[in-house]
Amino acid sequence: MTVINQNISSEFSVGKTLGRSFYIFSRNILPLVTIVILFQIPAVTWLVASGQYDINFDDPSTFSNINWIVHFGVIFLSVILSCVSTAAVTYGVFMDITGRKFTIGDCLSKSFSVLVPVIVMGVLVNILFFVGLALLIIPGVLVFLVLFVVFPVIIVEQPGIFDCLKRSYYLTKGNLWSLLGLSLVLLVISLGGGYLGQFLGTLFKGMGFDIVAVIVTTVAQSLYMAFWIIVGAVTYNNLRTIKEGISSDRIAAVFS
Questions:
Q1: DSSP assignment, residue 254?
Q2: Phi and psi for 117 in degrees, rounded to 5?
Q3: How far apart are CA 140 and CA 163, in angstroms?
Q4: Residue 89: closest CA among 34, 144, 171, 157
Q5: What are the boundaries of each domain within the chain?
Q6: Which tens digit of pLDDT belongs to each residue from 90-111?
Q7: DSSP-derived secondary structure letter, 5
Q8: What's the rounded Cα separation, in Å, for the pair 237 and 3?
Q9: Pick from 7, 81, 97: which is nearest to 40 by CA?
Q10: How far apart are CA 145 and CA 211, in angstroms?
């Protein structure tokens, strides 16, 4: 791998962030998406085994068929596993940015080394986000933007939980409008990927290939989830180079 050329800029650029993210994604699509899929398997398996995978939430008549204990258990498990996969993928991104090779095993090892703080942060961020959404939506959006890089902070810098929150606030301060625009682009990509996965899943299910439908849907979700994580890591890297004037090599030196 070659190191991605980096010129320290004075402004955060949505276009450059997306371009760099797509570049990293295209070069590492197999290992990084595989990591996300690995952490999706337990929750998907639980849903399929419990018969809850095909619940249609648009049809109120199906609510009586929902095992809510299983449903919320899967949600909680998904949150935890997505946090761990975020740590693993973020490590891989920084290895790629600095031109170093990495394996799936390296990424998993790093994610497990920060397992407890990442899970605690994931639960805390989700609570803050949904409380914010309940308060007329806008506070939830602000929480999401202010904490946009909280996971890379905890993975790279490993401060305390509340110091992570303050650190993410410092890095995102002054760039919330740009981060909002970036988030809207990611939302469009996610919706497109989600609809495509749902369409293909429904198509295969209609042909009687239920297992294929589950696999296709899971892979589609993993693709845009991996890209979200990559964008978060690149955003963190770019914000630090802008605000602190340091290179990606110095940022990733903690992994040496």
A1: G
A2: -65, -35
A3: 20
A4: 34
A5: 14-255
A6: 999 999 988 888 999 999 998 8
A7: P
A8: 14
A9: 81
A10: 37
**Residue whose entry in the numeric block shows the structure tokens 């600095």:** 98
Summarize pLDDT for 23-51 with one digit per residue, the tens: 999 999 999 999 999 988 887 887 777 66
pLDDT higher than threshold 60 for residue 150: yes
- For residue 70 the two structure tokens come to 């299983």
- Which residue type does 104 have? I
For residue 52, give every residue at least 6 positions away whose Cβ sits within 8 Å of its Cβ, in sequence order, or none: 66, 67, 70, 71, 74
What share of residues in the chain are helix, strand, coil (percent, to 5)? 80, 0, 20
Within 10 angstroms of residue 171's Cβ, the number of other Cβ atoms is 24
Average pLDDT over residues 114-130: 85
Q: Which of 73, 113, 133 is nearest to 255 (CA)?
A: 113
Distance (Å, whole) CA 113 – CA 214: 31
